[in-house]
């Protein structure tokens, strides 16, 4: 079974803090993705990566950065957390190249106070 | 860019058939996917259509018409456990998905 794990299920941070969300996949997938999910807005892509040290902006990258130093790990960084970044954050991975089955982690619910 | 439209909520009775529609506008198109998400859970893959027509997987089927920029997910013999949110997603490039806002399906007795 493909397994995508995220470092925390719940996280509470203060405005202005630097926040790291970690994601690890164990299936040697090339592609990794970070989404945020908000009620009524579906899943919106923040950043994605096709390979180690490679990243591309998604639809809503402002206020976020990412790091992919190893193939299995993709980190999302909130440089200075703000209350409008309170959300559910979902990581996903895929093999790429066609059918596009993305495998999701359990999500991190982040509350910024 | 990409945009997708699907109904926000659908209610159906256990044992019935329900169809969830999805229309899309896209600058590139590789295929249409469907994902299921139970409350508190992660989205899980259901189906993918790259070509026109119907794909069947057990009680679930998915249809695509590329000329109409339209697809649907058909759920038959509904069960209570099918109560969940269903998302259509367009693959606009080889690997990147754009998701719709989701349809919440409520199955009642």
Shape descriptor of chain A: globular
What is the helix fraction of residues of chain B, given as a range?
under 10%
State the separation between the terminal residues of chain B, measured CA to CA: 41 Å
Q: What structural class is derived from the secondary structure elements of chain A? A: mainly beta
| Number of separate helices of chain A | 0
- Unreliable parts of chain A: none
Strand content of chain B: over 45%
Q: How many extended strands of chain B?
A: 11
Structure write-up:
The complex is a heterodimer of chains A (113) and B (109). Chain A has 113 residues and is an all-beta fold. Chain A contains no helices and 11 strands. In chain A, strands 2, 4, 5, 6, 9, 10 and 11 form a 7-stranded mixed β-sheet that branches. A 4-stranded antiparallel β-sheet of chain A has the order 1-3-8-7, with no helix packed on it. The mean pLDDT of chain A is 93. By secondary structure, chain B is an all-beta fold. Chain B is 0% helix and 58% strand. In chain B, the strands form 2 sheets. In chain B, strands 2, 4, 5, 9, 10 and 11 form a 6-stranded mixed β-sheet that branches. Chain B has a 5-stranded antiparallel β-sheet with strand order 1-3-8-7-6, with no helix packed on it. Chains A and B meet through strand 4, strand 5, strand 9 and strand 10 of A and strand 4, strand 5 and strand 10 of B.
């Amino acid at each position: 079974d493909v397994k995508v794990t995220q470092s925390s299920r719940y996280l509470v941070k203060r405005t202005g803090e630097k926040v790291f969300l970690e994601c690890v996949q164990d299936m040697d997938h090339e592609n990794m993705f970070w989404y945020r999910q908000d009620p009524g807005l579906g899943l919106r892509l923040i950043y994605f990566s096709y390979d180690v040290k490679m990243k591309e902006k998604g639809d809503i990258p402002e206020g976020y950065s990412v790091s992919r130093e190893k193939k299995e790990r993709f980190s999302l960084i909130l440089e200075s957390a703000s209350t409008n970044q309170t959300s559910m954050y979902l990581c996903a991975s895929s093999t790429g190249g066609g059918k596009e089955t993305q495998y999701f982690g359990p999500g991190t619910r982040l509350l910024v106070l | 860019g990409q945009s997708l439209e699907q109904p926000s909520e659908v209610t159906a009775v256990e044992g019935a058939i329900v169809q969830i529609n999805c229309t899309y506008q896209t600058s590139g198109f590789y295929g249409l996917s469907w994902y299921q998400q139970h409350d508190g859970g992660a989205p899980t893959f259901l189906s993918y259509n790259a070509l026109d027509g119907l794909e069947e997987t057990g009680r679930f089927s998915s249809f695509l018409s590329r000329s109409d920029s339209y697809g649907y997910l058909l759920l038959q013999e509904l069960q209570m456990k099918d109560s969940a949110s269903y998302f259509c997603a367009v693959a606009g490039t080889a690997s990147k998905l754009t998701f719709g806002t989701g349809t919440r399906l409520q199955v009642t007795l």
